[in-house]
Amino acid sequence: MALTDRFTDALEDELAREFLANGYIIRDVDDRTALDALRHEIVRLACEHLKCDLPDDDGAFLNGIHERVDVSGINALRLHVFNGLNAHAWCRPTYLALTRSVIDAVVGNELAMQNKVNLSIQMPNDETSTLAVHADVWSAETPFEVVEWTPLVDVYDTKAMYILRPEVNRTVRDRLGSLKDGGKDFDLFEAYRDEFHWVPVKYGQTLVFSPILLHGNVRNDTAESRWSLNCRLTGLFTPYASDEKCLGRFYMPVTPKVASRVGMNFRAPEAIDG
Fold first, then answer.
1. Is the distance from CB of 122 to CB of 217 less than 8 angstroms?
2. At what angle do helices 91-98 and 32-50 cross, to 10 degrees?
3. Can you tell me whether residue 99 is helix, strand or coil?
4. Which of 272, 253, 273 is nearest to 264 (CA)?
5. I want to staple 141 with a disulfide (CB 3.0 to 4.6 A). Which of 87, 136, 150, 207 is the partner?
């Protein structure tokens, strides 16, 4: 083994530079076969709810779901698929495995993971499925986490989500702090409309982004429906921001190393404790 003066490798350094510059990273999933199988199960659960036959093309089925169900029925479909997917013991391990190489490099290899993998469906012209501009840390999630966001179809234009660039995002706190009402009636989307970046992501890729950045989505004005999964991951021993979204409730340990397991269970003898 050659001597080295570095604690990180070239891949970690590249990902760190990209994450700091953009606030996110997009990469091909580590296991495309696993993603295809996960998507197929989602299609199977959707067909189970709709009482229809399995399609020949999973992607075309998801893109065209608005041809089979209207806005009033989409949440019942989403909940059926969400509950069925999260009932599988393989759901979260498989989801993490999709982008494990990026997560390990950006977050670490001792991880806590959100206790459910979320599912979002946004049909064309559906005003009820928009997500107002927000930052996850404003909802008491830890700033040490990342969000793993995986589309089940190609997303682009208004079918995609938008993110505020890091250098602009840094202006938000001071801007809101100067307002008398603390920004309660301030229209963040309009204020930063020209600064938001709609992030195109192809099926087979995953977007990993910081919860500190403002993001959201607008009405889907494309002719296709959007399906996406998301889940949050953080370092096992990083600080948690609230009692509600803490380890054991919102986040669950998933990859503790054996030395950490031993250390967490260590109790000093009473004489040493004093």
1. yes
2. 140
3. coil
4. 253
5. 136
Give the chain's largest Cα–Cα span.
Answer: 71
Tracing tokens 């969400």 back to the chain, one arrives at 82
* Mean pLDDT of successive 10-residue stretches along the chain, which has 274 residues: 87 95 97 98 98 98 97 96 98 98 96 97 93 91 97 97 94 80 75 92 98 95 98 96 91 96 89 62
What is the value of pTM for the model shown? Answer: 0.92
How many angstroms separate the CA atoms of 147 and 136, rounded?
Answer: 9
Q: Which two tokens stand for residue 220?
A: 């889907």
Cα separation, 137 vs 26, whole angstroms:
21
CA distance 157 to 90: 32
Element (H, E) at 20: helix 10-22
Rounded Cα distance between 42 and 69, Å, is 16
Burial 237-247 (b: 16+ CB within 10 A, else e): ebebbeeebee
| Full set of structural domains in the chain with CATH | 22-239+246-263 (2.60.120.620)
Cα separation, 26 vs 208, in Å, equals 6
- How many Cα atoms sit within 13 Å of 98 on the Cβ side? 33
Task: Tell me the torsion sign for CA atoms 258, 264, 270, 271.
Answer: positive
Contact 150, 230 (CB under 8 A): yes
In this structure, the chain runs to a length of 274
Rounded to the nearest angstrom, the gap between the alpha carbon of residue 141 and the centroid of all alpha carbons in its chain is 12
CA angle, residues 130, 139, 81, in degrees to nearest 5: 50
Angle 34-152-162 (CA atoms, 0-180°, nearest 5)?
Answer: 130
The tokens for 255 are: 């990859």
